[in-house]
Design a protein that fits this description.
single chain, mainly alpha, 434 Repressor (Amino-terminal Domain), 2 domains, 6 helices, 56% helix, elongated
Length: 122
């Protein structure tokens, strides 16, 4: 096992290729341990060089609604009436603190995602 830090794209590509070879190694084996360590190094490199930004609050709501098979009408009463739900999902109005609390409870979306700023559409 010759593991070293991933410092550049060449190291990253080599690590990915090696992980591909040993990916299905048994746990608690020499190659299994190597795969665990390589996975952590690769994840760290990717987080630093290829960060994935979280979606804006409204996109997060829409993604979660799709995952839960919910329609716009299912949020009526949760964040307001039919027109208010439409205004929120079409980014015409901002979420309020009460809406964020309810959405966190109903959709299990972290409030830290829902409080992020997003661009309103005029």
């Amino acid at each position: 096992m010759n593991i070293k830090p991933i410092k550049n794209e060449t190291d990253y590509e080599k690590a990915l290729k090696r992980l591909e070879v040993i990916f299905d190694a048994k746990s608690n084996s020499k190659e299994g341990d190597e795969a665990d360590i390589l996975s952590l190094l690769i994840e760290n490199y990717e987080n630093q060089h290829y960060p994935i930004e979280s979606p804006d609050p409204i996109e997060a709501i829409k993604i979660r609604m799709e995952e839960m098979n919910l329609k716009q009408k299912d949020l009526v009463g949760v964040i307001g009436g039919k027109s208010r739900v439409s205004e929120i999902l079409n980014k015409k109005k901002r979420l309020t603190v009460d809406m964020i609390r309810e959405l966190e409870r109903i959709l299990s979306i972290s409030a830290s995602v829902l409080v992020n700023n997003y661009q309103l559409i005029k």
